[in-house]
């Protein structure tokens, strides 16, 4: 018996149960890095060629890390890296990518894997970013392109300092199937890993630091924030033109039209060239549309048809497997990028196409290459899967950068490091409530997401979806299959137009908020958990006490997943047409009677966006807004710079008049951003921040003022007026 | 350009794109083995300590492998083994573990991972056995305890000899989102792997060879095939006794009672000792029950409470993580097994407990140890997860073997090599149709499964579930939470009794069929696809042409998943109370009007089990059996040895009278198995096969005869009568 014990002890030593203490280096203020083992140099951030915005990080509040670095452990276990991070009682964890049903990640187990979202938050999603933030105000990035498994406060180690209480299930009604866990555990199936830590002091600051480390968020061209319609997949040039004219005739805004697969001569796999029947004169078509003020965005997927003009040239630089019979360019090989880029440039970008919708870079497993595929670069199929989205975005973005023209498009996947790429994620999942949860979660992981509108079962659903889509990074109808127009549901067509116009009116505000995303790292659309004064409720509840229905008495987290912040001041609380029950195990939305909903207001006073009236402070309110309105509330002292409704976003150099709205009883200061709206000159300092000050004068009347743009700085602002929405 | 090409070519060489040709050795007739790379010696079969039944394999029909071994390829890709196996057009693949919704596995992608079934067939299931069989009549086992990823006819390689046709999705309506694939691909995340091939000639033969290689299927004690009731979790000794008496009083058969967690002093984690309050005299209780003819089976999970008498002793031999605050014995360490076994032996087995229900050895991930856990044996957390079920079954089975007593129990998981362990898998999922699909799939992977009955929403559902449960490896009501009795639904209580009695009447037949499982490898309950003359329909159908609902025009496989064979002759076609629609993407069951269903009859004539009437041959029939009957059909020439209905299975040495039923117009021969029904003496040759011959005499009348048991061989048969069910 004694000998065996010694043997076992030796095995313990060999398998490395004693974790190594990590060496941390503060590489930028509030950003620490460690390298454990021998990581592959190919990582998420290396694939994205991330360049930190050092200046902006240095400008941030200096702070300590609110996480004891000595409590972070790493060890090699059976040839893989096992990382663990401590958790405190009451601490909540957010992030781990674009989840659709949960905001609180503590208690979840995920395997982070780029994929189409399959209706459960298990790590397979369009942006499985291995980054998380804590309610305590710090962030953690595991910079690995492997499939990472994470146990977020679920595992319990024998050596835990905060072990859960042992209970007898037979008789103790407080027994829980999920005992308390004080640890985040990560399995990295590799010989080593790089980990980065981001300080707060607030959760939002940790997110900002992460975004800035990845180069800051993207700044779309101004037209990118206008309205876009994706037309039926088989539309011809004439039909697309007709669609644009119909928008104009009916007075609906439209900045760009998206052409779906039919613009190509073959699709799935793709030829990357125009179909001569549907588009006999592509250059003329694109030019004509642009003259009418409507840009063209093109759908594609990256899989090359044997009938494509680039097939022969690119074939040697493609993977071992085909996707829909198309070869898969290895974008980690220079030649593959060059051959593809040359085709896009010559055939499309040089004639004025404004951007792409990059489809099918997510999953599912049935469509993409299997993990056994081999690529000529030697980068594994798994790492290629995790980064393909970023490589494809970067290749196209680079083409526009070469022309000093900004692009703004759509993509099916993103990952860590893609923060500054001008692409918005979309998918086919089409659950309106879950789309809002995804919008919330996008703010924790440095990606953009649109709750796109396709078609609907009713006018109510159509309008409800449209209303929330307006308060998102891309205001869009995707009619690739349905052919639906904004006015298709006639009985709500005026309400739809009201919100399409409101989107245009809000452009100065949204454009400024995107500038903050770029320069300061603040997500333009974001979770309530990132808002100061928002009350977390980490409570759990057991939804069914019946052991027949719920044999383990599983509890679920009460979490706020159906309202969000749009920019600095707006709180958006979408209405869902069908208040249907969610998936089993999910907490239902904050609903009451049909047509009503609950809204959680953070600390401070809040005002109705439409009327300026006071609605409450730091409390839960119930609203019954009627079909015409999506509930939107403004923070006390909120400043919303707006312009008049127009059919197109202002062009480069065009002056616009601004109406600055003020809400509440607090004086206010807001910095309005401006640049040419189309080029990358802002990266060379060619931009302006104009200070708006609103205060009461000696007579007790509200007054507003705006500073000048500065000598030689962009100034596209014409007349500025002030509107004080809240009556005393 | 030229240099880069050479560089890429070199990388191709280095990454090993040229797959190695494997060396195959015929280790037993019709069984070939290869070892690729340097596999870990710890495998699924090594953990199970499998001993092939060489004699039985040698007795099988000699045949070639209907799979070109030269077409099987292996290569190392990024440090993992990539295996590929060819597929032919029209070939169908079955197996890959206990799937609940699909029978056809061609077209599926799975990661084989022991887990609770989570309502989609993705490889996470109670028995993710890495074994598959082909409709062409061969089987493949990948003997690895890692999580294996398999792409079953989904991937398309550029170098495929049977490439799919390139189509244009824009205009070609025959475009498919899943192009034709001619390959099964397997990723083994390890430095090597052992692969075994099993010849047919039929698909059933390949299954048989696999089962025999793993030692043959288990042979339960005779009482194990009687009826069992699991009582409410907090029942006391008196209540359990009362339950047994009530069964007897009402005339319902009962061979063993299962006690749920409350028999232990603490549960979740467990103490492995009786609760002194509910069971003040365990030995007296067990003895008293046994004298009444009712055995005791005990629920447990393997996780040791700090309040258990064995905690201190076993703690050094447990993993790094706890499960429900209990330590996890490392059953790969001798001491852990010994300490646990000693407690079970002393406290339970030595006083006459007949077996266990081993819970919680499957998952889910939230309950069990994470993949980062470390075990003192040095076996990884993953391999421990994949084999823990087998180790736990084997430990308890060994205790009974030491006593020369057979056991028969329940388990939540199984894997390759567990074929001969006397345990039946169950779970909480409780979908009646999917339970039947699981029963079908259990036959492809060498495990047993019970579609257990717990409670029901209606009398109809209760009866329908009960009827199919009777035709399964374990006839059971699991009332751990509900406390439901067979007679709880009064309006169908007589019908329930009819089927409980029928189970007892069928014991001679089922016992013989289990003997065939043991001696010949033939699964007692099995898929229609294993039945000669059953017509496969490999057709695919697109369920929705709407791109809004089905953006990729996904097609689903038409497959037979709601009828099965029970023993050599019976075809069982369960009725489901609610003919509700299945999960999206699933083909609905073969239903017509409420109360009716379709049944696919294999070639040859078929007869009604209850009446002996002819019902059809090689065709699809529609039946409307009424609530009282589950449709059961008998093959032409079918022989069903039955006994009279009894409350208990015959004890060792007890003589029973047999009524041999014959169906149809064919003469027949059937080998009736017999042994003592309780010990392992059959392994030493202490058994008999008696030949039953049925033929028409010269007068054209049916006559039957049965041979003698043989000198010194077991003979528990009293009077034998013959009943010719089909009138001329």
3D structure, described in words:
2 copies of one chain form a homodimer. In chain A, strand 29 (605-608) and strand 30 form a beta hairpin. Chain A has 728 residues and is an alpha+beta fold. Helix content of chain A is 20%, strand content 24%. Chain A is globular. In chain A, helix 4 (203-213) packs across helix 13 (507-520). Chain A has a 7-stranded mixed β-sheet. Chains A and B meet through helix 1, strand 12 and strand 17 of A and helix 1, strand 12 and strand 17 of B.
Question: Which structural traits does this protein have?
Answer:
homodimer; 728 residues; alpha+beta; 7-stranded mixed beta sheet; 7-stranded parallel beta sheet; 13 helices; 38 strands; globular
Uncertain segments of chain A: 13-17, 579-591
Which bin fits the share of residues in helices of chain A? 10-25%
- Please state the oligomeric state of the protein chains shown: homodimer
Largest protein-protein interface: A-B, 93 and 93 residues
Topology:
The structure is a homodimer of 728-residue chains.
Chain A: H1 2-14, E1 20-21, E2 25-28, E3 31-37, H2 44-47, H3 54-59, E4 73-77, E5 80-86, E6 93-95, E7 108-114, E8 124-125, E9 131-134, E10 138-142, E11 148-152, E12 183-188, E13 192-199, H4 203-213, E14 227-230, H5 237-250, E15 256-259, H6 282-291, E16 295-300, H7 311-314, E17 318-323, E18 326-329, H8 334-347, E19 355-358, H9 381-402, E20 409-411, E21 423-425, H10 432-442, H11 459-470, E22 475-478, H12 493-505, H13 507-520, E23 525-527, E24 540-542, E25 555-557, E26 564-566, E27 570-572, E28 597-600, E29 605-608, E30 614-617, E31 620-623, E32 632-635, E33 639-642, E34 656-662, E35 668-674, E36 688-696, E37 702-706, E38 717-724
Parallel strand pairs in A: 7-8, 14-15, 14-22, 15-16, 16-19, 19-20, 20-21, 34-38
Antiparallel strand pairs in A: 1-4, 2-3, 3-13, 4-5, 5-12, 6-9, 7-11, 9-10, 10-13, 11-12, 17-18, 23-26, 24-25, 26-27, 27-32, 28-31, 29-30, 29-32, 33-34, 35-36, 36-37
């Amino acid at each position: 018996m004694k000998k065996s014990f010694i043997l076992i002890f030796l095995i313990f030593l060999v398998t490395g149960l004693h974790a190594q203490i990590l060496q941390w280096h503060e590489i930028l203020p509030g950003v620490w890095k460690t390298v454990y083992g021998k990581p592959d140099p190919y990582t998420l951030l290396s694939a994205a060629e991330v360049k930190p915005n050092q200046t902006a990080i240095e400008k941030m509040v200096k702070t300590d890390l609110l996480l004891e670095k000595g409590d972070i452990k790493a060890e090699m276990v059976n040839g893989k890296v096992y990382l663990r991070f401590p958790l405190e009682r009451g601490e909540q964890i957010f992030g781990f990518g674009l989840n659709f049903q949960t905001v609180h990640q503590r208690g979840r187990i995920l395997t982070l894997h780029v994929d189409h979202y399959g209706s459960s938050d298990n790590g397979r999603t369009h942006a499985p970013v291995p980054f998380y933030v804590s309610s305590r105000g710090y962030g953690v990035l595991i910079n690995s392109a492997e499939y990472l498994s994470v146990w977020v406060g679920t595992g319990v180690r024998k050596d835990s300092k905060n072990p859960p209480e042992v209970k007898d299930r037979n008789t103790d009604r407080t027994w829980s199937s999920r005992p308390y866990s004080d640890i985040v555990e990560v399995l990295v199936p590799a010989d080593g890993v790089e980990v980065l830590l981001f300080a707060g002091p607030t959760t939002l600051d940790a997110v900002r630091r992460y975004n800035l480390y990845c180069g800051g968020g993207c700044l779309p061209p101004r037209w990118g924030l206008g309205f876009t319609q994706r037309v039926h997949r088989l539309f011809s040039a004439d039909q697309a033109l007709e669609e644009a004219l119909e928008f104009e005739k009916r007075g609906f805004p439209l900045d760009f039209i998206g052409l779906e697969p039919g613009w190509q001569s073959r699709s799935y796999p793709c030829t990357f060239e125009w179909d001569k029947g549907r588009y006999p004169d592509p250059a003329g078509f694109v030019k004509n549309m642009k003259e009418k003020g409507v840009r063209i965005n093109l759908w594609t997927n990256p899989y090359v048809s044997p009938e494509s003009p680039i097939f022969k040239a690119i074939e040697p630089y493609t993977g071992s497997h085909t996707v829909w019979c198309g070869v898969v360019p290895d974008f980690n090989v220079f030649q593959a990028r060059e051959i593809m880029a040359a085709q896009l440039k010559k055939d499309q970008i040089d004639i004025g196409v404004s951007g792409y919708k990059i489809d099918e870079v997510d999953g599912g497993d049935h469509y993409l290459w299997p993990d056994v595929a081999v690529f000529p670069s030697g980068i594994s199929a798994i790492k290629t899967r995790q980064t393909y989205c970023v490589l494809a975005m970067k290749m196209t973005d680079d083409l526009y950068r070469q022309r000093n023209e900004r692009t703004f498009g759509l993509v099916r996947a993103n990952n860590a490091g893609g923060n500054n790429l001008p692409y918005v994620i979309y998918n086919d999942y089409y659950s309106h409530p879950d789309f809002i949860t995804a919008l919330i979660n996008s703010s924790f992981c440095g990606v953009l997401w649109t709750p796109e509108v396709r078609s609907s079962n009713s006018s109510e659903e159509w309008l409800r979806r449209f209303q929330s889509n307006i308060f998102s990074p891309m205001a869009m109808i995707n009619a690739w299959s349905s052919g639906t127009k904004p006015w298709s549901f006639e009985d709500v067509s005026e309400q739809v137009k009201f919100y399409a116009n409101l989107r245009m009116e809000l452009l100065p505000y949204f454009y400024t908020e995107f500038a903050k995303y770029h320069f300061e790292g603040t997500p333009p659309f974001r979770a309530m958990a990132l808002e100061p004064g928002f009350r977390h409720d980490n409570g759990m509840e057991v939804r069914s006490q019946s052991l027949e229905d719920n044999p383990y008495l599983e509890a679920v987290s009460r979490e706020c997943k159906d309202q969000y912040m749009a920019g600095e001041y707006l709180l958006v609380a979408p209405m869902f047409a069908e208040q249907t029950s969610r998936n089993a195990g999910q907490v239902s939305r904050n609903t009451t009677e049909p047509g009503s909903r609950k809204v959680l207001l953070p600390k401070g006073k809040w005002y109705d966006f439409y009327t300026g009236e006071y609605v409450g402070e730091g409390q839960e309110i119930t609203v019954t807004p009627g079909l015409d309105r999506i509930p939107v509330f403004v923070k006390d002292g909120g400043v919303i710079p707006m312009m008049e409704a127009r059919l197109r976003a202002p062009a480069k150099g065009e002056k616009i008049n601004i109406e600055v709205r003020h809400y509440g009883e607090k004086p206010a200061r807001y910095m309005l951003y401006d640049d040419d709206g189309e080029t990358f000159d802002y990266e060379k300092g060619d931009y302006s921040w104009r200070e708006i000050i609103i205060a009461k004068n000696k007579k007790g009347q509200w007054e507003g003022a705006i500073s000048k743009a500065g000598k030689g700085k962009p100034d596209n602002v014409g007349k500025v007026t002030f509107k004080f929405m809240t009556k005393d």
